[in-house]
Amino acid sequence: MLRSATSAKTRIPPKEGKRGEELILNKQIYSWGTNNSGLRDIRRGNWQGQFLANFKRGSGDNMGMAGGLNDRASIPGPVRSFFPNNFGVYNMSGNVSEWVNDVYRPLTTIDGDDFNYFRGNKFQTVYQNENKEFEKDSLGVLKMRDVTDEESASRLNYQKGDVINYLDGDSLSLVEYGYGITTLINDKSRVIKGGSWNDRAYWLSPAPAATCRKTWPPTP
Hints:
Blueprint: H1 22-25, E1 64-65, E2 68-69, E3 98-103, H2 108-111, E4 124-126, E5 144-146, H3 149-152, E6 189-193, E7 214-215
Antiparallel strand pairs: 1-2, 3-6, 4-5, 6-7
């Protein structure tokens, strides 16, 4: 079964190479390995000085000017137009953004544990029909259902089935988000990362892009 990656998992893997710890020493910002902290190719040749991703350079400048195009794409370009990361994965910085599985909260990076923290969990159990029989979906995977708060009340490890807003939006936190009035934050808002064709270079790094807010699922 496939699912979106979490926000924590997208911070280092987009930039990963043979020696992960060297990413910190080299201060690598973007996903490509041809220029650790810059937006242009530094290798000698005809491509020297060319942009390494599809992004918005400035207000109204999505692709440059005739005779001096910077990324040659005013909207999302072909997948293989720019260099992949060292895993061979394309568009981890620029061209298109990546939805991740985390529900957005502004203070998650402060409140969360430093090891693979994740917000957005709903506990689940295997689904059984009226005859107490297990069922499988079209791919042969057992169907699951959300655990209710009533079922969770007597458990020792958790007492709620839906903990998306745990200590940040629930009754214990005394925090309320006025969705559609003062904010776009709700329990369906998801983090997006990587930056798109219409984002400035700042958002191409996996770290700051965690502050983006969208609603899941995306509206057409």
